[in-house]
Amino acid sequence: MKFLEYTPLATLNSFLGHVNLGDYIIEGDLEAYSCKLAGIDKKLSRNLEQEVLESFSVSPQELATSPVGPLSSSASRKTLIYLILTLNHMYPDYDFSTLRAHHFCKEKGVAAVRQTIDNSLMETGQVWARDVGDSTSFLEALWSAIDEVIQLVDCDVYSYKSDHDGDPFGEKGAIWSFNYFFYNKKLKRILYFSCRCKSKLALDEASLSSEEGFSEQEDEGFVNDMDMDV
């Protein structure tokens, strides 16, 4: 998959990198990818498709009604592979290749997803108006950029619900998060939008605990050195 560079998305990403809302902060990622596979993506795609087909022979009923569609269909398998590869590209320090269809959910439609996102990011508009100073509101700028890149009218929307330790979404202090994939089959393109809301208090407590743990290790090391000297 190939990262697609768009100036409106870059502006929004810069803003969403750290939005200070007093007692909590919001961090977001918004990136678009072409679904054209090359290099290592092709190899991973072949491996994933083979594993899905092998699983299908064991449990055909479960896989026939997967969130991405019946996995007996090549198009459904490709959709699953694109979702997994997008996460791998977004978070290269993690491996999402073990995910399967049940880790994802197909949303009811763009309108419902948009309402959820608008409700979650309503307060960020005040920071946008103050720091960016654009006459266009944050939500207007957000959806205008998303529509320009992905053409929402032709999109299916999927979400990823984290349920294991091997991903970046289980951080301490998380209040809420969302991970949406806007997939346009006609354009062969995916736009991924993720946001996390974190409690400053919880983050400060976690940081303090980490510092105390490091200090204790230093003290233990100092005592051990003293013992060795004696």
UniProtKB/TrEMBL annotation:
GO terms under cellular component: nucleus
GO molecular function, one term: RNA polymerase III core binding
Keywords: Nucleus, Repressor, Transcription, Transcription regulation
Keyword Ribosomal protein (UniProt): no
Pfam families in the cross-refs: Maf1
Cellular localisation: Nucleus
GO biological process, one term: negative regulation of transcription by RNA polymerase III
InterPro entries xref list: Maf1, Maf1_sf
Family per similarity comment: Belongs to the MAF1 family.
Protein name per UniProt: Repressor of RNA polymerase III transcription
Organism expressing this protein natively: Klebsormidium nitens (Green alga)
